[in-house]
Amino acid sequence: MRGLLGAALAAVLSCGPSDAEAMKLKEGRNLDDVVECPALLCADELEFCGEMLFDYGRSPPLCLTTDICARVDCLEPNRRCVLFDGLPVQVRCVKNDD
């Protein structure tokens, strides 16, 4: 039973984000200054540990700053980048409230 549960959990966690939630880096932008979160903690007090939902899949936990959404575009129109509280924080796209 434990093996079946583990296999089901692995399958769910390996699924990538939907196009509605996914983002891509803006042209000319990069994440060269971003490092992975060791033990879900970041050395700089202005950074938080976050997971980004890219068009190709989820990122590992990364040390991010609150301006991370300025570096990305949502894949689908009429969506915006937001930070969802959690550990790690999730950075994903949601529908605009317009």
UniProtKB/TrEMBL annotation:
Q: Tell me the PROSITE patterns matching this sequence.
A: PROKAR_LIPOPROTEIN
* Organism field: Hyalangium rubrum
**Top-rank taxon, per record:** Bacteria
- Protein name per UniProt: Lipoprotein
